[in-house]
Design goal:
The protein is mainly beta. It contains one helix and seven strands.
Amino acid sequence: MVVDWYDEPRSKIVFNGVCLFKAAMNFDINAKGSIDIAYIAPEDDPDLLFFYEKWKGAFDNVLLKCYIIKTSSTGSDIKILAESVEKVQL
């Protein structure tokens, strides 16, 4: 994901060890996408808990975080379960 930061140079956000990508996208406007808020969800996030339950111990040794990105342009929600995230300069 390439991000044009308002106070930093443009960079790429790379999610490592992705196990889930869930997007509730709202389309209907012709506008550049912009991030309203991004955060790491609590450890009791329903999708994170369901993922571990579904795999019945197969991923218990893998520490996943739940990254949430909400857009302001369309009100879309993106959820990513991944081991880590890093910012890479372009």
